[in-house]
């Protein structure tokens, strides 16, 4: 059964019309620097499953400022600066950070594993029972782009 998840800000509304295809707690350094959180809940949706009512109000910047030609762009609201989504220039996925991008966290599916954790993080390996991987889960496959 799939659900609809609503996010965004008062100027740009986001609707995810199907469940995430990947749902993880991210420990990567890019998420850390962008969100200021030690770990960030990130949900990947199929690109076509995330709808935005006012894409013209989005400001786009490289998600990884050290890799400006990378595929992921952080989209923020041009009016209020709220983070809205990560958009993939190759149109494979759109990613949402539920607690920062306006979603109802209580109604959002929990992350199923930890991604991008390794010994260099300087804090203990997560021990909440969910699998811990040094990248995305090994069985994740990127959808083909549009
Ligand atoms: Zn990350
Ligand atoms: Zn806004």
Put the structure in a nutshell:
The chain has 146 residues and is mainly β. It has one helix and ten strands, in the order E-E-E-H-E-E-E-E-E-E-E.
Mean of residue pLDDT? 96
**What is the beta-strand fraction?**
25-35%
Count of strand segments: 10
| Poorly predicted runs | none
Per the CATH scheme, the topology name is Metal Binding Protein, Guanine Nucleotide Exchange Factor, Chain A
What is the H/E string?
A: EEEHEEEEEEE
Ligands: zinc ion
Number of domains: 1
Count of alpha and pi helical runs: 1
* Overall CATH class: Mainly Beta
- The CATH architecture: Beta Complex
> If strands are numbered along the chain, what order do they take across the biggest sheet?
6-7-8-9-4-3-10
Overall structural class, as computed from helix and strand content, comes to: mainly beta
* Helix amount: under 10%
N-C termini distance:
25 Å
What's the overall geometry?
globular
Largest sheet: 7 strands, mixed
| Gyration radius, in Å | 15 Å
């Amino acid at each position: 059964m799939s659900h609809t998840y609503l996010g965004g800000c008062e100027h740009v509304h986001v609707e995810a019309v199907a469940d995430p295809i990947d749902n993880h707690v991210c420990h990567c350094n890019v998420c850390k620097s962008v969100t200021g959180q030690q770990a960030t809940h990130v949900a990947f949706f199929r690109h076509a499953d995330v709808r935005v009512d006012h894409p013209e109000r989005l400001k786009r910047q490289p998600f990884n400022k050290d890799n400006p030609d990378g595929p992921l762009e952080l989209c923020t609201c041009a009016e209020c600066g709220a983070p809205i989504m990560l958009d993939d220039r190759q149109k494979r996925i759109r990613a949402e950070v539920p607690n920062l991008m306006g979603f109802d966290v209580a109604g959002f599916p929990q992350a199923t594993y930890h991604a991008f954790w390794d010994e260099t993080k300087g804090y203990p390996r997560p021990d909440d029972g969910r699998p811990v991987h040094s990248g995305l889960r090994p069985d994740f496959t990127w959808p083909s782009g549009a």
